[in-house]
Write a structure and sequence with these properties.
The protein has helices spanning about 75-85, 120-125, 140-150, 190, 205-220, 225-240, 340-345, 355-365, 375-405, and strands at about 5-10, 15-25, 30-35, 50-55, 60-65, 100-105, 105-110, 155-160, 165-170, 175-180, 195-205, 250-255, 270-275, 285-290, 295, 310-320, 325-330, 345-350. It folds into three domains: about 5-55, no CATH class; about 60-200, Rossmann fold (3-Layer(aba) Sandwich), CATH 3.40.50.300; about 250-360 and about 370-385, no CATH class. The chain is an alpha+beta fold. It is found in: Plastid, Chloroplast.
């Protein structure tokens, strides 16, 4: 569906109509068509040609925001999410091999690091971290996310994580679902207002440290000392600019140390909370057994294999930043993923299309980090809820023009 915006201006064009392909200073790809109606009088004063700017993109783009600190599992979450919609997520074909963008049949995932206004050297010179708003171009972020939501393709910048430089831009076309993931998807109120749904990954300091060591030492060759220094240097900015965004999230996945093992310091067993805001349009919180009740459930036994320290689920209503929420919590880890269907059968409002779909998705990605605990389970469920939200929004938009015609 084409998107058209009509403008009028005082001009005296020489022809009745013409078209001008153009690219705006913000990287939008659009086509301007000017329709001119000649005045009946000899004077050209008051003549108002109509400028109609059109894009050929899909007007049904849904925007999802995912916020988290660096090294907190955003990439794994994105792979689970795109899998729910089908099709493997890959970098743009024929483009920059260091692109941060992932594209599948339905989704496009944009890394908000691409809106850094300062490269690595520039941040060092100014003494700011990437978390600091002064190191990011929120005006461009807003304009381009809005353009994509409106069906207009953009040329998005690329932040090269290998070189620390800003590479030439890449063309991004409007997808059915646009996911913006990174440090600041809910920081700027203009961008926040464009989101159809938002998620915050809230990793406790203890768990975050363990994860960052594993990723940065094993995958990026960083030393333990440099990792500790990086965390300490980033913490003030994280507290000021990143952590505050969770108050705006529709859903928070909070990862904490287990309570099943007294004085546990290893961080191998996790306690994970799925905090779901009540009253969000097109979103119904998941519940265990009885909606709105307070539930404590230890499922281990004949139907679920659990080695020490076992598994415990809790569910109930709560308050979060003055919002009414429902909280589903899992402490412990699964021994056998194929037995997860027993837990799945006791959960409601999980937006599956068939019995056992959560278990199927978990088994499909058994090698992903967190697949044996609540991080993988809740990420999968949120992915299914986003699919349901997308389908409801599309159905609602398709219904509205029909109702308007009847009226």
């Amino acid at each position: 569906m084409a998107i058209c915006t009509v403008y009028t201006t005082k001009l005296n064009p020489a022809c009745s109509s013409f078209s001008t392909p153009s690219k705006t200073h913000l990287g939008f790809h659009q086509k301007q068509v000017v329709f001119y109606k000649k005045s009946s009088s000899r004077s050209t004063r008051g003549t108002s040609p109509y400028f109609i700017t059109c894009s050929a993109g899909d007007s049904q783009t849904i925007v999802i925001g995912l916020a988290a600190d660096s090294g907190c599992g955003k990439s794994t979450f994105m792979r689970r999410l795109t899998s729910v919609f089908g099709g493997a997520a890959e970098p743009p074909k024929g483009g920059n091999p260091d692109s941060n963008t992932l594209i599948s049949d339905t989704t496009t995932v944009i890394c908000l690091d691409d809106y850094h206004s300062l490269d690595r050297t520039g941040r060092k010179e100014k003494g700011v971290t990437a978390l600091d708003p002064r190191a990011n171009n929120f005006d461009l972020m807003y304009e381009q996310v809005k353009a994509l939501k409106d069906g207009v393709a953009v040329e998005k910048p690329i932040y090269n994580h290998v070189t620390g430089l800003l590479d030439p831009p890449e063309l991004i076309k409007p997808p059915k679902i646009l996911v913006i993931e990174g440090l600041h998807p809910m920081f700027d109120s203009r961008v926040r207002d464009l989101l159809d749904f938002s998620i915050y990954l809230d990793i406790s300091n203890e768990v975050k440290f363990a994860w960052k060591i594993q990723r940065d030492m094993a995958e990026r060759g960083h030393s333990l000392e440099s990792i500790k220094a990086s965390i300490e240097a980033r913490k003030p900015d994280f507290d000021a600019y990143i952590d505050t965004q969770k108050q705006y999230a529709d859903t928070v996945i909070e990862v904490l140390p287990t309570q099943l093992i007294p004085d546990d310091n290893e961080g191998k067993v996790l306690r994970v909370k799925l905090i779901m805001k009540e009253g969000v349009e097109y979103f119904s919180p998941v519940y265990l057994f009885d909606e709105g009740s307070t539930i404590s459930w230890i499922p281990c036994g004949r139907k679920l294999t659990c080695s020490y320290p076992g598994i415990k689920f809790t569910y109930g209503p709560d308050a979060y930043f003055s919002h009414e929420v429902s909280v589903l919590e899992m402490d412990g880890q699964f021994d056998r993923l194929d037995e997860l269907i027993y837990v799945e059968s006791h959960l409601s409002n999980i937006s599956t299309k068939f019995y056992g779909e959560v278990t199927q998705q978990m088994l499909k990605h058994a090698d992903f980090p967190g697949s044996n605990n609540g991080t993988g389970l809740f990420q999968t469920i949120v992915g299914l809820k986003i699919r349901d939200l997308f389908e409801q929004i599309i159905a609602s938009k398709a219904k509205t023009p029909v109702e308007a015609t009847k009226a």
